[in-house]
Recover the amino acids of this structure.
């Protein structure tokens, strides 16, 4: 595709609701990353996929956060029982692969999640 | 653990002038990559410039250049001939192969270019 897309762009959830955020990476990109960006802060790593395998989930803040990429392309980040501290922009990024020449990450526009 | 520090929360510059944004980092790795990303108010993160640590020559992309001082662990961004469209948050970021190529970001510097 032309770039990384994310949907929805904005999501308002009541505390305790479950949400699902979608990321469509650039076609053919092997690596996919999720980041969380709190207001006024830099993005922080959440999780990483190589194709369909989730190789690193060390940044997920709690077991309420779950991510998947079942066919190695589209990825979904799910947050269960949302809390106010989950309010942030969730950024998805993809990159072509793991070699030194293909490490550059391309970012989507993000999903702004507001938990009320 | 790697850390990235941007000590200037906000900066401003007059159009057509030059500005330098500071970044320092801490790592025990020898092979790594450094980046400057720009995030305009529309929120999409855009790569401005990148530098591989094994390269001694400083990277340059048109009006953007870096001063990479490996021993000092410093990676500053110089923007020449500043334009109104350069107004954005600028993030310095760090990546290593050993960390699965995930990016570690600084807190950002808000740059405002004034007409």
């Amino acid at each position: 595709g032309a770039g990384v897309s994310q949907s929805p762009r904005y999501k308002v959830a009541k505390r305790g609701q479950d949400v699902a955020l979608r990321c469509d990476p650039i076609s053919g990109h092997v690596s996919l990353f999720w980041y969380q960006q709190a207001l006024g802060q830099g993005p922080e790593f959440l999780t990483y996929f190589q194709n369909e395998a989730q190789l690193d989930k060390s940044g997920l803040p709690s077991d309420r956060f779950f991510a998947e990429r079942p066919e190695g392309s589209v990825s979904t980040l799910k947050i269960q029982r949302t809390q106010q501290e989950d309010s942030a922009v969730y950024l998805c990024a993809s990159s072509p692969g793991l070699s030194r020449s293909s490490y550059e990450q391309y970012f989507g526009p993000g999903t702004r999640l507001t938990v009320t | 653990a790697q850390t990235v520090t941007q000590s200037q929360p906000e900066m401003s510059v007059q159009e057509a002038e030059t500005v330098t944004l500071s970044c320092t980092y801490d790592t025990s790795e020898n092979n790594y990559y450094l980046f400057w990303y720009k995030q305009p108010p529309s929120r999409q993160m855009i790569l401005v410039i990148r530098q591989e640590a094994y390269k001694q020559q400083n990277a340059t992309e048109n009006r953007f250049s870096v001063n990479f001082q490996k021993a000092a662990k410093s990676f500053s961004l110089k923007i020449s001939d500043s334009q109104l469209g350069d107004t954005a948050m600028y993030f310095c970021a760090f990546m290593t192969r050993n960390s699965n190529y995930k990016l570690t970001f600084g807190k950002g510097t808000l740059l405002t270019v004034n007409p």
